[in-house]
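Hi C.,

You asked whether I'd gotten around to modeling the 239-residue construct. I have! Everything is below, sequence then structure, no commentary in between.
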Amino acid sequence: MIEHKVALITGGGSGIGAAIAEDPARAGVWVVINDLYPQPLEEVANRIRSRGGRVMTHLADVTDFEAMEQVMQQTMTQLGRLDWLVPNAAIHDASNIHDGDPARWRRVIDTNVTGLLYTVRAALPHMLQQGFGHIVVIASLSGRVTYVGEPIYVTSKHAQVAFVECLRQEVAASGIKVSIIEPGMVDTPFIDNPFAQELKKTIAPLEASDVARAVRFILEQPANVVINELAVRPAQQFR
C-alpha cells in the first residue's frame, strides 16, 4: 500500500521535482521535499496540503553534505522510514567550451554530480539499516548522447549515469532498488535558452507531469521487479 510510504525528493520546489512531489502525495504518500529556495518550496507544499496531502519541507543545499545528513536524519526521526529517494536537484548551462563561464561550470558540476553523491550518501545508511528502499535518480538523455551546445551539462549527466550504475551494483544484494530516468526535452525553465528554444521549433517538449508518471510507474512495480533504466522522449525527439 503506497499510502504508508515516505518519499523524499530533492529540487522539489519547481519543474520536474514539484511534479514528482505532487503526484504520490495525491495517493497518500508522505512527501518530504527539499529545495534551496524557500518561496517555491512552500508554494508546492501548500498545493499538496490544499489537496489533503501530507508533506514536510526541508530547506537545504544538496552540495552541503552535513545539511543533507540533517535532512535524512530528521526524516527518519519524524517519519520513521525512508522508502523512496528521488535525487532530482540540478541546474543547467548552455554555452560553448571556448567561451563558457568556468564559475558556472563549477556550480553545474557541484549541484548535478556532487549534490547527487551527497544526497545518496546521506540517505543510503538509513536504507541499508532498515533493509529496504528505492532510489530513483532523475538524469537526462544528455547522459547518453553528446552534442554541441551544453557541454558541461552533458558531462554532469554522463557522470550521473555512471554513478547510478556503480550504486546499483553495490547495493543489489541488500534489498535496495536503484533506477534512473533519462528524460528528453521537458518544458521547464531549463529550456529558457537559445539552444533549447531552437530545438523546441521541431520538438514538442514533455511536461513535468510526464516524468512524474514515469517515476510512479517505476515505484509501483512488484517487489520482485526493478526497472533500472527508463528513457522518456518527446515523440519527435530522435536522439
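If it helps when you're writing up: The beta strands are 6-10, 30-35, 54-59, 84-86, 133-138, 176-183, 229-232.

Thanks,
B.
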